[in-house]
Amino acid sequence: MRKPAFAVTAAAGILASGAALADFPERTIENIFPWTQGAAMAASQIVAKAMGDELGESITIVSTPGAGGTKSFITAMGRPADGYTIIDGWVAPLVLQPVLGNADWTHADFKPLHAAHSVPFSVGLSADNTRWSTFEEVMAYCAEHPGELRYSTDARENLPHMVTARVLQAYNCVAQNIPYGTDGDAVKDLKAGVLDFAYVNPRAYLQEPEAFNMVLALTDSEEAAKTYGGAPNLTDLDIDIGISGLAPMGWTWWLVHPDTPDEETEILRNAMGAAMAREDVREQLRNIGFNPLSYGPDQYDAVVGPVREQLESMRNAIAWEEEQMKAQ
Question: What is the architecture of the domain spanning 120-246+312-326?
Answer without folding.
Answer: 3-Layer(aba) Sandwich (3.40)
